[in-house]
Structures are given as structure tokens and as C-alpha cells.
């Protein structure tokens, strides 16, 4: 006689419960993977979109090509081990024209410099050129074994020297200084203890690349408040003079921030008003 095996109701319900758990777990894993994938993709997309949009504000550049050259510098690499040279291909495609006698450098004076250059179309900072404009204020990095761009949790200045962002600024600042010509101006901060700090990009990269006779003079504008901390006789500024290539004329002037704001008026003629 044929025997038919019936499962008990408890057994059946336990099995159904088990299947449901597996399905729920699978669904969860899929959702997490999709969300994670989308977030990572979004990171790449957001940076890429900002980059391309900013690039398109300049005429005559192949923005997709420039993005490709930029991205290859750090994608798939340890974000603490991106060399300065990794950005060479980016520099090669994102060429820019030097603006002789109008190039403006700065150290620890970013806001006052840009407030000044934005209102008056006379001086040109690195951020006014394609090279500096594309990534100004942004953070990015890659990861070993990944083809994504991350915009959060990237190592910073205190984490490691050769981080993605620092190497970038070092490379583009070098390119900007290599192109400097004629009379060059630099705004330094007179409200800090060391206005010409040896570890700054201005001191360690840019000044070293000012060659005479391409660069003829360097005018330092030491931006002060009513009660300046440093003045033009500061020891670090003596170091700056010593660092300069022979033949380059040096000058330094203490100018209050309030006066620089007055100088920012678009009606003033081009050139310094200090
Ligand atoms: O280290 P710094 O100043 O002396 O660098 C400033 C110097 C300028 O003359 C620029 O030509 O180097 C160039 N430069 C930038 O244009 C720039 N934009 C944004 C260097 N760094 C720049 N940044 C970011 O600010 C970047 O993250 C870098 O490390 C800081 C340096 O600012 P700082 O210490 O005031």
C-alpha cells in the first residue's frame, strides 16, 4: 500500500519561515548593494558634473578629455599615495595662457585676494584660470581596487603628505608659477606669526620657480588689520628675499584689509592702488 507522507503544519510553517528569511536577506543585500552603488556612482557623477560644468565656462577646451586626464591621476590609487607627477597629463591638456604683469599669488590670504580679484578684472589668481577654477574648494579621492571617485572621507593634510588633493594643488601651483612673467604680485597675511611660511605652497613651490628674467619683480602686499602682528621687516620676509632669484626686484608694502576693500572698487583703474 502506498504510503503518503504528510508534513505536520509546524514543519510546513517553519520551512515557509526559513524561505521567507532567506528571501528577505537576499532582498536586503540587493538593496544595500544598489544603494551603495548609486551613492558611489553619484559621488563620481557629482564631481564630474561640477568639473565639466565649470570647464564649459571656459572656451576652447575639450572638457571630457581634461576630465579623463584628471581622473587617471587618482582613480584606483591609494589616496595617501598620489604623486604630484600623476597630474602631469592633466596639466598637459589643461594648458592656459600666462597673463604677464597681472599674476597674483597669495598665502593664507585667499578670501581677501579673491574678494579683490573678483571685483576688479586686473589681477589673475590661479583660481581665475581653468587649472585652479575646476576644483577650487572641492575634495576628491580614489581607492585601490575601485574605479570610483569619492568626495567624502578622503585623507586630508594631517593624514598624509601625498594625498590626492594636496598633490593636485602642488602640481597646478607649480604650473602657474612656471608661467609667471614680468611683474608678479603676492598677497601675504600680516595677521599671522609667519607670513612667509616655509611649508606653504607659495614658499615651497611657487617662489622657487620664479626665474629671472622671465619674472622681473615681486611685489608683496602684506595684508594687515588695524593692529598688525607682522610687518615688512619680519624675518620670514627676509628669507623670501634671499630665496628670490638674483635679478628679481623685491618690494613689500603693508596695506590694511580695509584699504584693499576700497581698492576693490571696479571704478579704480587697473593695477594696484596701494
Ligand atoms: O599653501 P599656500 O596657501 O601658500 O598656497 C597658496 C598659493 C597661491 O599663490 C596659489 O597660486 O598656491 C596656489 N594655491 C591655490 O591657488 C589654491 N587654491 C586652493 C594653493 N592652494 C590652493 N588651494 C587650497 O588652499 C589647497 O587646498 C591648499 O592646500 C590650500 C593652501 O592655502 P594656503 O596655506 O593659504
UniProtKB/TrEMBL annotation:
Belongs to the ADP-ribosyl cyclase family. SUPFAM superfamilies: N-(deoxy)ribosyltransferase-like. GO terms for biological process: positive regulation of B cell proliferation. The keyword DNA-binding does not apply. It is an enzyme of class 3 (hydrolase). This is ADP-ribosyl cyclase/cyclic ADP-ribose hydrolase. InterPro entries: ADP-ribosyl_cyclase (IPR003193). The keyword RNA-binding does not apply. One of its GO terms (cellular component) is plasma membrane.
Amino acid at each position: 500500500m502506498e504510503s503518503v507522507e504528510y508534513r505536520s503544519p509546524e514543519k510546513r510553517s517553519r520551512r515557509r519561515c526559513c524561505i521567507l528569511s532567506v528571501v528577505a536577506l537576499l532582498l536586503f543585500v540587493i538593496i544595500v548593494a544598489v544603494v551603495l552603488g548609486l551613492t558611489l556612482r553619484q559621488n563620481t557623477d557629482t564631481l564630474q558634473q561640477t568639473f565639466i560644468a565649470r570647464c564649459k565656462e571656459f572656451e576652447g577646451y575639450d572638457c571630457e578629455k581634461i576630465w579623463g586626464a584628471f581622473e587617471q591621476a587618482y582613480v584606483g590609487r591609494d589616496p595617501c599615495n598620489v604623486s604630484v607627477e600623476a597630474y602631469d597629463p592633466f596639466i598637459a591638456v589643461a594648458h592656459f595662457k600666462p597673463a604677464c604683469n597681472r599674476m597674483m599669488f597669495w598665502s593664507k590670504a585667499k578670501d581677501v585676494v579673491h574678494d579683490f580679484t573678483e571685483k576688479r578684472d586686473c589681477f589673475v589668481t590661479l583660481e581665475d584660470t581653468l587649472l585652479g577654477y575646476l576644483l577650487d574648494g572641492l575634495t576628491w579621492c580614489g581607492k585601490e581596487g575601485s574605479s570610483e571617485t569619492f568626495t567624502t572621507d578622503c585623507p586630508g593634510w594631517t593624514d598624509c603628505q601625498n594625498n590626492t588633493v594636496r598633490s593636485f594643488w602642488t602640481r597646478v601651483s607649480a604650473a602657474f608659477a612656471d608661467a609667471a612673467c614680468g611683474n608678479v604680485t603676492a598677497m601675504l597675511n600680516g595677521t599671522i606669526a609667519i607670513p612667509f611660511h616655509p611649508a606653504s605652497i607659495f614658499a615651497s613651490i611657487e617662489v622657487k620657480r620664479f626665474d629671472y628674467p622671465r619674472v622681473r619683480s615681486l611685489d608683496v602686499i602684506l595684508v594687515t588689520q588695524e593692529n598688525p602682528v607682522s610687518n615688512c621687516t619680519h624675518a620670514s620676509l627676509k628669507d623670501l628675499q634671499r630665496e628670490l632669484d638674483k635679478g628679481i626686484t623685491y618690494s613689500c608694502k603693508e596695506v590694511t584689509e580695509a584699504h584693499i576693500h576700497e581698492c576693490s572698487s571696479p571704478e579704480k583703474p587697473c593695477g594696484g592702488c596701494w
